[in-house]
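Record type: ASSEMBLY
Status: queued
Input:
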Amino acid sequence: MTQQGTLIVLSGFSGAGKGTVVKELLSRYDNYALSVSATTRKPREGEVDGREYFFKSREEFLQMIEKNMLIEYAEYVNNYYGTPKEYVIKQLEAGKNIILEIEIQGALNIKKQFPDAILMFITPPDGRELEKRLYGRGTEDDATVRARLKRAYEEADYAGSYDYIVVNDDLDECVSTINSIIESEKYRASKKLSLIQNIKKDLERFN
Amino acid sequence: MTQQGTLIVLSGFSGAGKGTVVKELLSRYDNYALSVSATTRKPREGEVDGREYFFKSREEFLQMIEKNMLIEYAEYVNNYYGTPKEYVIKQLEAGKNIILEIEIQGALNIKKQFPDAILMFITPPDGRELEKRLYGRGTEDDATVRARLKRAYEEADYAGSYDYIVVNDDLDECVSTINSIIESEKYRASKKLSLIQNIKKDLERFN
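Status: finished
Output:
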């Protein structure tokens, strides 16, 4: 029997390198999958329905909300984005560790619905490094970077509500650590109760 | 700064191979240490005070109880056995993962005093294997083995109160898994709060 996969919720400061971490996890291990979001925004060139996103009309999306088919959703620049429950559950049952890369409020909500989900917060080693990385991108003006840094300052208060905090300094090490945490979580007593029940059954005649 | 070590409480069915697992952990990794118990029983030939046990008079031991110097203690065949708090705390501060091999009731008590302690339950893969190992020792009569198997049946109900349940089928794998769990636990958010506080300090000027 395939052991159920783990739902991994990944958040972190803008500039922590979450995207790179996720890409590396997916390429290095074959039992990870990325959650595919539903969205009402129009597909861009090259985007495939069911790969980048499940593309939905506004009406379809509202229906998904109503029928409780989304684990979480948010509106952003006039478009809806959400995580379809069915897709996530199917992947978990197939033994995949499924990664949801979402922001903090959504992450904490998911823990309420999926208590077995592992909440992981990715961070650079220190604030100066975060600053360096955000300015280093060179794609945003000073005001935008400063706004992101202010936001990181505020978000820091929520990091303690996650299950694990992992520093992304060395990418290889960070990805190995995440995988090791996920593997270790499979030995949680709450996930081994059927093993213990079987042993009890084996030993019943000695009671 | 050395990161604080982890207090590991190891229990499991008689016949699960806890002793071998501990020996292998200590020989394979240099950041593990075994807790040294205090006892009122007389030293046997070759036993060294502070290595096998801290040997105490009955009076000294009762004073240790009274002064709350023991994490846990029990009386067994007219002798006291207990875990000196000071020794454990010193080892943890030195960054050692300290292993306490104790029975179930004691283990659950320790979690109350040391909420960061990791409770690990070691088990053979199934009941038949447990039976085979206990009979295989060939050192105990049938009645004793049957009593141990009955006890295992009863103890199974407590396994779910542990943090992790690890099967000792392949010794190498079991020991690697335990180490991996202990390493992963060091990334618990509750143990990374000073890192986050430092980042907040670095980013304060953007607020």
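Annotation: The CA atoms of residues 121 and 165 of chain B lie 5 Å apart.
Annotation: The two ends of chain B are 29 Å apart (CA to CA).
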